[in-house]
Recover the amino acids of this structure.
């Protein structure tokens, strides 16, 4: 279940921000970051679409994003950036990494991490794009159409969230059996990875489907995204991890 709540936490996990992607939900994300109070922040992949405008100048959204993260660091927040498939260049050490470190010199960049919560449980933190190497290569015509329409869908959702058309699109998407199968297979692989790393759960993103599942021996926490759901995983002072929405 996704619940609303405070922005004062022990640790916060954000995934799939896609900052720079059509300005969808940018202001909501940046407002959230500027008001956030947390001991640690994990950016769990697909943070940026690009850092530069065509002119080579860093855009205002990134300026504000870097300023918000810098403010968190000045208040003692430790920030770790987990590489995702949309921001691999950040991890691979190209010019973008140099730019980020100029803004945020103490940020940590990782492919994955083992995180110990306040209650002693250990979680694997990983974006989840490794799933793409195991997913079926054959893409149906329905999937191709859905991928092409997704940018339009999230823009409509951002601007007209309460209209009948958008609600119908959202309901149909959430009931799609192919999407459900995709999410289930993704979860299975993420839990297998957690087990391989001797962890008691996994915190991930990638598929833009927020979920908190504690039904099995291993916990599955998917942060969701900030294009469609504006969701995240947060750890309370007692070490409990919850799924929240802004």
């Amino acid at each position: 279940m996704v619940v609303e709540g405070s922005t004062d936490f022990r640790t916060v996990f954000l995934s799939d921000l896609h900052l720079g992607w059509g300005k969808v939900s940018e202001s909501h994300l940046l407002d959230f970051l500027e008001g956030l109070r947390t001991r640690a922040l994990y950016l769990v992949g697909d943070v940026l679409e690009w850092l530069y405008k065509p002119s080579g100048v860093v855009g205002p959204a990134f300026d504000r994003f870097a300023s918000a993260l810098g403010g968190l660091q000045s208040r003692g927040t430790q920030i770790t950036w987990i590489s995702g498939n949309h921001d691999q260049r950040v991890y691979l050490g190209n010019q973008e990494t140099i730019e980020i470190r100029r803004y945020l010199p103490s940020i940590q960049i990782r492919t994955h991490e083992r995180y110990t919560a306040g209650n002693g449980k250990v979680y694997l933190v990983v974006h989840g794009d490794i799933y793409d190497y195991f997913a079926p290569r054959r893409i149906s015509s329905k999937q191709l159409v859905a991928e092409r329409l997704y940018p339009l869908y999230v823009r409509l959702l951002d601007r007209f969230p309460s209209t009948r058309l958008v609600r119908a699109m959202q309901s149909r998407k959430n009931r799609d059996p192919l999407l459900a199968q995709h999410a289930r297979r993704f979860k299975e692989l993420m839990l297998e990875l957690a087990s391989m790393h001797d962890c008691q759960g996994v915190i991930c993103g990638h598929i833009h489907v927020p979920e908190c599942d504690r039904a099995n021996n291993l916990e599955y926490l998917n942060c969701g995204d900030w294009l469609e759901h504006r969701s995240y995983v947060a750890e309370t002072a007692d070490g409990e991890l919850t799924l929240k929405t802004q």
Residues 1-6 have pLDDT under 50 and may be disordered. The CA atoms of residues 101 and 111 lie 17 Å apart.
